[in-house]
Amino acid sequence: MTTGIIGQPLPRVDGRAKVTGAARYAADFNQPGQAYAVIVSATVGLGRVAGVDSAAVEKMPGVLAVLSHLNAPRLAYGPHKSYIDPATGERLHVLQDERVRFHGQPVAVVVATTIAQAERAAAALRVSYNAERPVVDCAGPEARAIVPEAGRQPDARLPADKARGDADRALAEAPVKVDETYDIARENHNPMEPHATIASWSGDRLTLWSKSQVVVNEQAEIAAIFGLPPESVTVICPFIGGAFGTSLRTWPHVTLAAMAARHVGRPVKLVLTRKQMFFTTGHRPRTVQRIALGATADGKLTSVVHEGTGETSRYEEFMEALTSVTTFLYSCPNVRTRYRLVPLDTGTPNHMRGPGEASGVFALECAMDELAYKLRLDPIDLRRRNEPATDQGENKPFSSRSLMKCYDLGAERFGWSRRTPEPRSMRDGRLLIGMGVASASYPAFHAPATARARLLPDGTAEVEIAASDMGPGTYTSMTQVAAETLGLSVERVRFSLGRSDYPPAPSHGGSWTMASVGSAIRAACIAVREEAAKGRKDRPIEATASSQRDPEAAARFSMHSFGAVFVEIAIDPDVGTIRVRRAVGAYGIGRVVNPRLASSQCTGGMVGGIGMALMERTVLDARDGRPVNAHMADYLMPVNLDIPQLEAHFVAETDPHVNALGVKGLGEIALVGIAPAIANAVFHAAGKRVRTLPIRIEDVLTRRSV
Amino acid sequence: MTNQEPFIAAAAESEGTRGGISRRSVLLTAGGAASIAVVPQVASQSVSEGGPASSMVRVRLAVNGTRHELDLDTRQSLLDVLREDLGLTGTKKGCNQGACGACTILLNGRRVVSCLTLAAMHDGARIETIEGLEKNGELHPLQSAFIEHDGLQCGFCTPGQIMSAVGCIAEGHAGSPDDIRFWMSGNICRCGAYPGIVAAVSDAAKRV
């Protein structure tokens, strides 16, 4: 084995393709004779389509078809549910009936020869409705919380209720308490690349160039929807222009593109508009959470209560790990968590970077900061006093846990010792300076995956797997794993991904790509190497191998990444503007395959966290569920000028239990912890505790949140 | 948060002096954006009157040094012409609302968002896109710098970032990291590669 390639800070192997415009994303795969489809979205938030006046539009120049529930083919919609779909409920069946379940639901699709003709015709289509008033506020008077069906069993992956000890009694008896509610706004992923599908039929065979974080599921799902054998469908997606979770599921536009292409008998390109990206492709659900902490006077936690509620749709129960981290982050004998959902007349939410954990840890880590102030303890000291030796929720040892090492390294790099703890005690000229800190954690998952490796007589190798690269650098890191395992230089390895006819990979999300795909590639390359060692090298040597987590290790250990995040902000006391001045994150994530790309991934996650803390909020009109800021200039996201100096550091951590590569994943934890560190810094700067995200100018200018 | 400021500022600054752009042409560009916004209304009116006719116009464009003579629908944006008519898919459509910068190209040497630029208004224009930067197999210094400083992740905003950076440097707005942050804020990077982008532009500015 050529050692030392894993761990090298190599530049991206696909860098040249990306800086020259040669990297092709879904909508770049123009097909000969292709037509264009544009979706018409419901303009009411609930009700029924009363009429579709398609006759006039059908006569417009270039229009090939207008499909609505009145004339769309009835599709098979065979059963299909993967691990990325909500366990309870059924996907939207698009254009199959007249019901409108939420604002923006597709009610028609217009196909025309050119994109300008299709856009114009879609805008001209008159759809009339019998409208009803939707319920879209999960904290409003009409909201009704339910117990999520898939969380009812105590051994569920995401239990609705979980407890150890007697948290409520311990809270009542605790000498020091914090009991507060935290409210996080709905967010939309808003990747730069809009969802796009080009569909092309050849007889009963369908090819989809489609933006997807899991091409094998898109293949299986579209096959089920159209009643085809899976091998009749091929999904191709070599590049993803960011996704952050929004392309995990196969949303209705993929079905519509395939339906339209079959109807008009030619390839069809369908790209969602930016506005439509706010309707049907998932969102981070708004959450409202109560955290109650009880502690002894010397800062030992005696009680933790975490009750969280998230939005979902009426037709599916979307669940995320909102309360999971609370069960193991700190040592405490009495812990009770509760997770509920509020079904609303909106589209179904979906995982967004750091799903559940990012929201849950925000509440817990803000409450810990509040407790530190009540106890007059340094917030890091409070965490040190409650550092557990084991996962007390699962009664298992951690496979590795470097949280305190992360605090030590981060504090040193950040200069935490220069902080004076009193709120409003630090200034830079007329600016109020605040320093905040928070813990971060995310599970170290590992899903089964299969890869194929081929050693050619010319001494080069080819490696294939149906994985994805939405930006973290899958192409590069997997090339490194293959090169090191095969004993080749990286230049001699050609790594391919993003085709559903390659060996199957799990979804590109949940921070498990490096562990799952990397381990499968390593296994395939070891098999090739062993075969090559037997002799003849004048013909290709090919091996396909799978990998999954050692079940014994999974049963023995609790496996998570940990990190500590430090943020410095400045608040202008006259106008209330909040600016992040610098951020330092220290992470224990096992082995780092490529430090250059890992650092980028971490600082990128920080940028997402800054957006969550200070900018991002999808606002729904209570009358009709319309997102009123469905525009990239109105849905605020960090731009270059908002981003200061960001640093990511990795503590040395060896974890032999998680997987053969010893990697724990990075994409999600990079966003977890940023928002609470910022909120805690806002309190330190201004002396005002803001428990609602995003934190706005008016929150620090008024006394409402003190 | 300051998505559009550099473009507005660039437009204001260019009045009268830079590259033969006059106040009139700036207003014309703004008019282009406005006319896109009213298209749906016009369309529905025409429909009720019994069917609209799209009008075509002949437009000559020099794209990356290659001359094209095209018969275009007057409603087409320069972005759609590049991507759908000329097959130059390196330029990306991120929002089609002029708010993200992914479609940034150079139009007669000035950076513009091509999604808000009607092709029909630019007969005779000289256009440069990401596909034209590499010369004889040699990457442009900005392209190399974006790789070296990892100023990208998913790569979707990258063509727009790089074309915008070409303009930013040419305008003399790349003198300091703070300058670059401000003048590159019309190009959103959702992956958050901003520190690498600033480092890349800063580095390349010394070499071009």
Q: What is shown here, in short?
A:
The complex is a heterodimer of chains A (706) and B (208). Helices cover 24% and strands 25% of the residues of chain A. Chain A is of the alpha+beta class and 706 residues long.
What are the salient characteristics of this protein?
heterodimer; A: 706 residues; alpha+beta; Aldehyde Oxidoreductase, domain 4; 7-stranded mixed β-sheet; B: 208 residues; Ubiquitin-like (UB roll); DNA polymerase, domain 1; 2 domains; 40% helix; globular
- Strand order within the widest beta sheet of chain A: 3-6-1-13-10-11-12
**H/I helix tally of chain A:** 15
Shape of chain B: globular
Sheet with the most strands: spatial strand order of chain B: 2-1-5-3-4
Could you tell me the radius of gyration of chain A in angstroms? 26 Å
What's the total count of β strands of chain A? 27
Q: Helix proportion of residues of chain A, in percent?
A: 10-25%
How many separate domains make up the residues of chain A? 3
* Largest beta-sheet characterization of chain B: 5 strands, mixed
Summed over residues and divided by their number, the pLDDT of chain B gives a mean of 82
CATH superfamily of the largest domain in chain A, called what? Aldehyde oxidase/xanthine dehydrogenase, molybdopterin binding domain
CATH class value of the largest domain in chain A: Alpha Beta
Oligomer: heterodimer
CATH class of the largest domain in chain B: Alpha Beta
Total tally of structural domains of chain B: 2
